[in-house]
Each structure stands twice: as structure tokens, then as C-alpha cells.
């Protein structure tokens, strides 16, 4: 049974930019997506990142949601402080990013005050969050293929071509997310 939750936009922290970091000591060297988020109206997220720099790993629950236009990732931190927020991924332009989080089973949260791009804040504080596979939506792949098919159809492909191209796109991007540092 699907659970519906109403959330207003003020709960969501805007994504300014994104990227990925791969290090030998994290996730067996796989790339982990980085979300550079605008904390201007979400000071509690910035404070959480600062708290994480001087404390042991905290506790967080992650929950995915999805509709025809967006995928949502909701974070509920209980340690080192209680903070709840979410991020939205436009399925027309950010489906690969959301799927990268699912595939790598993690995401870094980097406040934009440390740089608007991942490279600008590389040595700055950020929080690594484990996104357990059990949080993935059961029909995740179908949602992604449907959204990408719609985008490709808007560029003139036939329904069949678009669906095949969408499946191929996600297969290829998943191969990239699975690459380990040093295996390139």
C-alpha cells in the first residue's frame, strides 16, 4: 500500500548543483553523488553539517517518494541533532542523479556556503548519508524509464524508440555509477 504524505515546499532544501566524489576509503571506491544545497532558508541543515564535523556518525532515516514529475528523498536525522528536510529531483532533468543515489546507496550533503560547485567545497564540511537499499521504491525503474521516455518523446522519438533509449540510458549510467576508483 502506498502512503501519501503532503509536504509543503518550505520543507525541501533546493539543490544548487551536484557532482560525485570517489575515494578509496568510502563505498569501496565507488562514486557517491554530492548534492550542493542552498541552506539560506535552512540554517538547521548548515548547523547539522557543522555538528557532524566534530562528532561521531549520527542516526538518520531516509525515505524515497515519487510522483509523475519528481522523486523526493526525505531525511530525518536524530543525532547529533534532530533535523528533518527533503530534496526534490525533477525526473525530466535529474533522474540520473536520483538513481545514482539509489545505486551508490549514499549521498553527500554539501552546503552552498562552502562553494556553489562540488570542487569549490571539496575540502569543506559535508555529511555522508547512507541511503539503504530497502528505502528504494519497489517500482523505481518503471518510474524512471517512464519519465525518461516522456522526455525523449518530446524530442521526436517514437514511443518504442524512446522506451528502448531510456532503458539503455539507465543501463549505461548505472555502469558508470558502479565503476570503482582505479578501475577506469
Notes on the protein architecture:
By secondary structure, the protein is α+β, with helices and mostly antiparallel strands. The chain has 4 helices and 7 strands. A 4-stranded mixed β-sheet has the order 1-2-6-7. A 3-stranded antiparallel β-sheet has the order 3-4-5. Strand 3 and strand 4 (70-77) form a beta hairpin. It starts with 14 loop residues before the first strand and ends in a 6-residue tail after the last helix.
Please give a handful of descriptors for the protein shown.
184 residues; alpha+beta; 4-stranded mixed sheet; 3-stranded antiparallel sheet; 30% helix; globular
Give the helix/strand class. Answer: alpha+beta
Query: Percent range for helical residues?
Result: 25-40%
Shape category: globular
Gap between N and C termini: 42 Å
C-alpha Rg, in Å? Answer: 17 Å
Beta fraction? 25-35%
Low-confidence stretches: none
Number of strands: 7
Largest sheet: 4 strands, mixed
Mean pLDDT: 87
How many individual helices? 4
Output the strand order for the largest sheet.
1-2-6-7
What is the element string, with H for helices and E for strands?
A: EEHEEEHEEHH
Short summary:
The protein has 184 residues and is an alpha+beta fold. Helix content is 30%, strand content 25%.
SSE blueprint and pairings:
Elements: E1 15-21, E2 32-37, H1 43-53, E3 60-66, E4 70-77, E5 83-90, H2 95-104, E6 106-111, E7 127-130, H3 140-154, H4 159-178
Parallel strand pairs: 2-6
Antiparallel strand pairs: 1-2, 3-4, 4-5, 6-7
Amino acid at each position: 500500500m502506498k502512503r501519501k504524505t503532503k509536504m509543503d515546499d518550505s520543507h525541501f532544501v533546493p539543490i544548487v548543483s551536484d557532482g560525485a566524489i570517489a575515494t578509496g576509503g568510502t563505498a569501496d571506491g565507488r562514486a557517491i553523488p554530492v548534492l550542493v544545497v542552498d541552506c539560506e532558508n535552512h540554517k538547521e541543515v548548515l548547523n547539522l553539517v557543522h555538528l557532524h564535523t566534530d562528532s561521531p556518525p549520527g542516526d538518520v532515516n531516509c525515505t524515497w517518494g515519487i510522483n509523475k514529475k519528481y522523486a523526493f528523498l526525505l531525511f530525518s536525522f536524530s543525532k547529533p541533532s534532530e533535523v528533518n528536510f527533503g530534496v526534490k529531483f525533477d525526473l525530466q532533468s535529474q533522474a540520473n542523479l536520483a538513481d545514482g543515489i539509489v545505486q551508490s546507496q549514499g549521498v553527500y550533503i554539501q552546503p552552498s556556503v562552502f562553494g556553489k560547485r562540488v570542487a569549490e567545497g571539496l575540502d569543506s564540511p559535508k555529511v555522508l548519508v547512507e541511503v539503504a537499499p530497502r528505502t528504494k521504491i519497489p517500482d523505481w525503474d518503471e518510474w524512471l524509464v517512464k519519465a525518461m521516455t516522456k522526455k525523449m518523446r518530446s524530442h521526436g522519438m517514437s514511443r518504442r524508440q524512446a522506451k528502448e533509449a531510456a532503458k539503455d540510458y539507465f543501463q549505461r549510467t548505472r555502469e558508470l555509477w558502479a565503476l570503482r576508483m582505479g578501475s577506469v
